[in-house]
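How a chain folds remains the central question behind the approach discussed here. The record that follows shows the chain in one-letter code together with its fold in token form:
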Amino acid sequence: MLSLLLSLILQATAPAPVAGYEVVRVFPHDRNAFTQGLIYLDGFLYEGTGLAGRSSVRKTELQTGKVLQEYALPAAYFGEGLTNWGADLLQLTWTTNTGFVYDRASLKVKRSFSYSGEGWGLTNDGRRLILSDGTDTLRFLDPLSFQETGRLRVRDRGMPVRQLNELEYVRGEIWANVWQTDRIARISPQTGDVLGWIDLRGLLSPGEVTSADAVLNGIAYDSRTDRLFVTGKLWPKIFEIKIASRR
């Protein structure tokens, strides 16, 4: 009994496992895009970008990085996270408590919606929207009414994980960029526990980093072919990666 108890204690206090990565392919990316949200749908990337007066939502060609369609947000809005719902795209803004619903085919604004607090990252699990606001708490929203339906506090062995930013729902887990780090947290949507970390240091060479704001941010998952893409704000490249053995 004592050995079992000690084993359970060690499991509860041991650090979450950390995985590395392997680069599969590299694609061009607009180095002027301040990436805030990234999703992959039907062979294309859809990207939400930020900065006042430069925010947009755009459809891009993965192979070439060419922007095929783009809608520029009014200068009052600082664009943030992006996800899809049915035939629509949903985009947050940072501090203006306003989100936008776009027709995905045309990128025309269909309507706006309101939410409390800041907007950082946005994804969905097929039933709910999942919103990050830079704290250690994720919020669940109804995808039609946009009313809050629940909250999830994110913990790594009992310690809060703050600065949760861009989100993606991957294989039944919530994956989150942690702002100003090179790590992605893999989060249990049931408990909020960090199941593991992905260390993405070294994706860009030092010479490719042109700004202190050029940090890792952007996760897109192709569920049909199980492909994973990552990029960052003001990065010149998008990387298709595979998760390497944990270390």
About this structure: The two ends are 30 Å apart (CA to CA). The chain has one domain: 18-246. Residues 125 and 169 are 6 Å apart (CA to CA).
